[in-house]
Design brief:
2 domains; 14 helices; 5 strands; elongated; Cro/C1-type_HTH; MLTR_LBD; Transcriptional regulator; Lambda_DNA-bd_dom_sf
C-alpha cells in the first residue's frame, strides 16, 4: 500500500483514538507498579505518585526515555512486537493484559468494521446448549444474547430474549444485583471483558456507545472502566439468591470455538450431588410452568 503524504481525516481520528487508549493503558499499569515491585531502586528526586516514572519504565524496558514518552503520549505511529514484549515484561503484564497491549499497539485501523449485520448463533454451540442439563447462555459481540435455555431464565429470573443485552441487564436492571449475591465479583470482570473487546475492535461505534451508556448509568462501571483492567471471561463462581430454590452456587465456564471467538457459550456448572444440583430439576419444572403461564 502506498503511503500518502497527508492522511485522510478518518485515519487521523482513528490514530488519535487508538493511541490515546494505548497511552492510558500504559499509564494505568505504570501507576500501579512501584519501583520495589519492579525490582529497581527509585530514581532520585521527589515523587508525585508511588508508581513508576516514565524514565524508570523506559530503563526497565530497554528504551530511551524519549522513545517511551512518544509511545505513551501517542506520538509514535508504529510500535514493534519487540517493544510490546519489552513493555509487557517490564510492567509484569499477565497473558490477557499482554494481548490487550498488543491489540492497542497494532497498526491503526483505517476504517471501522461494518457490524450492521446481526450475528447468527453458531449451530454447533446451539446443539451443545440444547443438550445441557444446566443453565446455558450463548453470547455474541457486545454481550448480545444469541440464545439461552429455559434453566438460564429460571435461574436469573429474566427473559434474556435473543437480541437483548446481557450487559444492560447486569448493570442497569436492579434485579440483577438482588439475584446475584456476589454481583461485584462477577460484574467487575465483565467490565474488563468489555475493555478487552474494545481493544480488539477500536472502530466498533456501537460498543463505544454501549460503554458510554453503562458508564453513565452505573458508577461501578465507570470506576472499573477507568481502572483499565482487562479480562477474557475466565472461570468465575456465581452465587444466586432464588425466590423458590433458595441459595444456588454455580461455576461459570466459557466455551469458545477456535474459528469464531466472537461467540461464547456460558455454562453454569454445578458440583455433583450438591444442593444446587438437586434443585435444578425443580427449577426446570418451575421455569417451564412459568413459560406456559406467560403464554
Amino acid at each position: 500500500m502506498t503511503r500518502q503524504a497527508i492522511a485522510p481525516l478518518p485515519m487521523l481520528v482513528g490514530m488519535a483514538a487508538d493511541r490515546a487508549a494505548l497511552g492510558a493503558f500504559l499509564r494505568s499499569r505504570r501507576d500501579s507498579l512501584t519501583p520495589a515491585q519492579a525490582g529497581i531502586e527509585p530514581f532520585p528526586g521527589p515523587r508525585r505518585v508511588p508508581g513508576l516514572r516514565r524514565e524508570e519504565l523506559a530503563v526497565l524496558a530497554g528504551l530511551s526515555p524519549d522513545h517511551y514518552s512518544r509511545i505513551e503520549q501517542g506520538r509514535q505511529p508504529t510500535i514493534s512486537e519487540d517493544i510490546v514484549e519489552a513493555l509487557s515484561r517490564a510492567l509484569g503484564l499477565d497473558g490477557v493484559e499482554r494481548e490487550h497491549l498488543r491489540h492497542l499497539a497494532a497498526p491503526v485501523r483505517r476504517a471501522p468494521r461494518d457490524d450492521s449485520a446481526a450475528q447468527r448463533a453458531d449451530p454447533g454451540l446451539l446443539r451443545v446448549m440444547d443438550n445441557l442439563d444446566v443453565p446455558g447462555l450463548l453470547l455474541g459481540r457486545r454481550g448480545v444474547v444469541l440464545a439461552r435455555n429455559t434453566l438460564l431464565t429460571a435461574v436469573l429470573g429474566a427473559p434474556m430474549e435473543p437480541g437483548s443485552s446481557f450487559l444492560r441487564w447486569l448493570f442497569l436492571d436492579p434485579h440483577a444485583r438482588d439475584r446475584i449475591v456476589n454481583w461485584a465479583d462477577f460484574a467487575a470482570p465483565a467490565v474488563g471483558a468489555m475493555r478487552y473487546e474494545a481493544g480488539r475492535h477500536p472502530g466498533d461505534r456501537r460498543l463505544a456507545a454501549l460503554v458510554a451508556e453503562l458508564r453513565a448509568g452505573d458508577p461501578d462501571v465507570a470506576r472499573w472502566w477507568d481502572d483499565h483492567g482487562v479480562t477474557d471471561r475466565t472461570s468465575v463462581s456465581k452465587q444466586i439468591a432464588h425466590p423458590v430454590a433458595g441459595r444456588l452456587e454455580f461455576g461459570i465456564e466459557s466455551v469458545v470455538k477456535p474459528h469464531d471467538p466472537e461467540q461464547r457459550l456460558i455454562v453454569y456448572t454445578v458440583e455433583p450431588d450438591s444442593p444446587t444440583a438437586r434443585n435444578l430439576p425443580l427449577l426446570a419444572a418451575w421455569g417451564t410452568a412459568r413459560q406456559l403461564t406467560d403464554q
